């Protein structure tokens, strides 16, 4: 058979395989979920550590996380509402729920007020404040650690009384302190991994238990005339657990009080939508077992940038997420852990491949953007398209395969007038790469093991950046 194939036929076949072009269509007129952004936390003293870092690495670290030109351009921070006698605004019991709480506010909050102000200077306006637990004296186990329940939630009463209103009052007081600090909290959560009993701050709940507290918290905010704080639930340890809790919340009628369903990914990544009309956020993610690395791609390991680019892609495009928040942002002298994006030894600063994975999204897919529908598949490449509030359009391509792909992007309901593209792979870091605009369509090459973000009709004010 081979003899009957001409050299020309073989050549044509090979070039089709190597540089064959796939066409996709982006339908700008059909909006899907709204995007709230991408972010990190500096909980458990890491904000204070960041603040105490020597000035040059500290500034570089802030730029890597939040600068939209030189860093990832993150747009969300997740702060921890403390529950220990060292970091809570309510460190001591006041006897009974009807007593008078003695709040303590140091205007520092373990460095998180500073972090919030720094983030704000870069334009971050989304602050998610989340409590890991109520103070111990409000709980069934009289301890802010080791699980236990909030006294008074369904099925869990205490001889000391029903502390639900006191816990809601404390959370609202925390919100007020942040308003006074000029960095208002926009999202408020009262649980963290309630399906995991930790030896540190932790409090148990399922969706039904949470439903016996949520209206109290909602009404307490309303009574304080704070109507612009979005309530979240439940920061489950994994997506399957949050799916179960969400169905309990929905059945209990909680969607009218809540704004965002929140989950972690330690026992299952977000891979398909959770059934709710509320937004969903991935609020804590990392690999807890690998050493810190700066690698973009080596073998698909859990510390690598491309691995995380693909997790973000899967979460946003396949699981309908509106936000993706990594665990920590910046840490000093912690080489044993890959749970943060930017490393420092207190002198130099090293960004990770994971930071650049976030940059490929967060610099171009901005808060208020809507994902839009697309059609067409590209071999080994996942992609999502987004319309920003400034009229620009971003399309993020994630190629987990070992071959380059050539893509022609056509549009419905949109006319591209300028096109740019940015590439991260093992030899590029958010570097400019060709995106050819012709006849209303854009052609771009997606190298192997790479992320390419195509940006169309960038706002004129940003064109010089
Ligand atoms: C970094 O160095 C400063 C002194 O410049 C010191 O105060 C701080 O504790 C150091 N940070 C860490 C995490 O070692
Ligand atoms: C981001 O970095 C650029 C380049 O260094 C700088 O001009 C700009 O002021 C920085 N933005 C912020 C908000 O600091
Ligand atoms: C809330 O606003 C109402 C109407 O403006 C006002 O009467 C009330 O005193 C306010 N409550 C608080 C707690 O500020
Ligand atoms: C929410 O409203 C309060 C007034 O109740 C205001 O002080 C605060 O700045 C607002 N928060 C945001 C994020 O705009
Ligand atoms: C995606 O999330 C939005 C809320 O952001 C919701 O209205 C919509 O129904 C969800 N879509 C799917 C397919 O779950």
Automatic annotation (TrEMBL):
User: Under the cellular component aspect of Gene Ontology, which terms does the record hold?
Assistant: membrane
Matches recorded under SUPFAM superfamilies: (Trans)glycosidases, Glycosyl hydrolase domain
The organism's place on the tree of life at top rank: Eukaryota
Q: Name one GO molecular function term.
A: glucosylceramidase activity
Hydrolase as a keyword of this entry, yes or no, is: yes
What residue stretches are annotated with the Glycosyl hydrolase family 30 beta sandwich domain? Answer: 368-454
Q: Name one GO biological process term.
A: glucosylceramide catabolic process
Keywords, alphabetical: Carbohydrate metabolism, Glycosidase, Hydrolase, Polysaccharide degradation, Signal, Xylan degradation
Q: Which Pfam families does the entry mention?
A: Glyco_hydro_30C, Glyco_hydro_59
The Swiss-Prot or TrEMBL record describes its family as follows: Belongs to the glycosyl hydrolase 30 family.
Which PANTHER family does the UniProt entry name for this protein?
GLUCOSYLCERAMIDASE (PTHR11069), LYSOSOMAL ACID GLUCOSYLCERAMIDASE (PTHR11069:SF23)
Entry protein name: Xylanase
Lineage summary: Eukaryota, Fungi, Dikarya, Basidiomycota, Agaricomycotina
